[in-house]
Amino acid sequence: MEMSGQDSESALREFIEHRMGQELEGEKYAQADHKYFSDILRGVVARQDEIDGALARATGKTWSFDRIDTTMRAILRAGSYELIANLTVPVRVIVHEYLSVASAFYAEKSDDIVFLSGILFQIARQQRPDELGTLSPAGT
Predict the structure, then answer these.
(1) How many angstroms separate the CA atoms of 73 and 105, rounded?
(2) How far, in whole angstroms, is CA 39 from its chain's centroid?
(3) Total structural domains within the chain
(4) Domain-located, residue 59
(5) CATH number assigned to the domain comprising residue 78
(6) Of 50, 64, 83, 128, which residue is most buried, by most CB within 10 angstroms?
(7) How far, in Å, CA of 17 to CA of 103, rounded?
C-alpha cells in the first residue's frame, strides 16, 4: 500500500485476484488463506497507530522507524499485529512465519533477518510477557 499508494481494500483485492496462487514474472506465488490474509491487512490498518507505537518502543529512541525500508516495515507491522491481536497463535510460530516471509526478500542470515527477529521478540515481551518465559530470539 505504501509503495503503490493504494488504499487497503484495493491492495487486498489485487493480492487476492492477481498474486495469490498466480505466476508473475516467472515466480509462482503460493496460495494463501484469503480470509486470514484479509484479517491481518485490515487489522494492521485499523490498529496502525498502536502497532507503530509498539514498534517505536521496540526499536528504541535512537532508531527512527522511518529509516526502516518499506518492505521490512510492512513485515514488522503484520507480525506485530499478530503478536498483539492473535493470542491463539504462539509467539514462536508467529516469529517463525514472519522470518520465513522476510527470507523471500532478504538473505536468510542477513542483518535484516536478525533485526526482524529481535524486534518481534521485543513486541512479544511487551504484549505477552507470560508466554515468553524461556523463549529468546536464538530459540526460534
Answers:
(1) 12
(2) 13
(3) 1
(4) yes
(5) 1.10.940.10
(6) 83
(7) 24
The size of the chain, in residues, is 140
- Amino acid at the residue 131: E
- Give a yes or no: residue 12 inside a domain: yes
Taking the C-alpha atoms of residue 91 and residue 128, their distance in angstroms, rounded to an integer, is 8
Boundaries of domain holding 93 = 8-134
User: Once rounded to an integer, what is the mean pLDDT over residues 106-130?
Assistant: 89
Give me the chain's average pLDDT, please: 82
Cell of 88: 491463539
Residues 132, 129, 48, CA angle at the centre, nearest 5°? 110
Nearest to 116 by CA among 135, 90, 96: 96
Phi then psi for 4, rounded to 5 degrees? Answer: -100, -15
Instruction: Specify if 3 maps to a domain.
Output: no
pTM: 0.80
Whether 97 is in a domain gets the answer: yes
Report in angstroms the alpha-carbon separations of 1 from 45, 46, 57, 62, 88: 10, 14, 24, 27, 27
Dihedral, 29, 35, 40, 42 alpha carbons, nearest 10: 120
pLDDT of residue 106: 87
